[in-house]
Amino acid sequence: MGEELSGLDVKDLRSLEKQLEMSLRGVRTRKENLIHRENLELYKKVNLIHQENKDLHKKSSSEIELQEMLIFQVYGTRDATRDSSNLYITNNSLSIREDPDAPVCLQLCQPQQNNHEVASGSTKLG
């Protein structure tokens, strides 16, 4: 390729240089446009992921609030923090899971009387 240039005069060389510069400018312009389009696509993806992250954060926050509300309803204010480890929300339902390794505490107590029994303790036969 360099052998072909040796026979050209200065005017022809400058014309060839301008052609090369214009071709190079066209290649750079196409490359800049391609990079710009790729950047726009990446920007859209970043925005979608950011919005999805915000939505997931909002959803998890509302599920945590729901779980805390259910714990409060089940255990009341005093026991909500103590027993919350046994409550789990799965598939939008509340599940109470007891620890299988927890010790069982059993106590003896007097039997309770029903409201319809006579206060004296005797049974009315009929």
How would you describe this protein?
The protein is built from two helices and two strands; from the N terminus they run ααββ. The protein has a two-stranded antiparallel ribbon. 1% of the residues are buried. With 126 residues, it is mainly alpha-helical. Helices cover 62% and strands 6% of the residues. Strand 1 and strand 2 form a beta hairpin.
For the report, how would you describe the main beta sheet? Answer: 2 strands, antiparallel
Percent helix among the residues?
A: 55-70%
| Helix run count | 2
Order of helices and strands: HHEE
Strand order of the largest sheet: 1-2
Tell me the total number of β-strands: 2
- What share of the residues does DSSP label as strand, in percent? 5-15%
Structural class: mainly alpha
Shape: rod-shaped
Low-confidence stretches: 78-83
State mean pLDDT (0 to 100 scale).
78
What is the radius of gyration? 41 Å
Instruction: Give the N-to-C terminal Cα separation.
Output: 126 Å
Protein name: Mads-box transcription factor 27
Domain K-box: 1-70
GO molecular function: DNA-binding transcription factor activity
Organism: Phtheirospermum japonicum
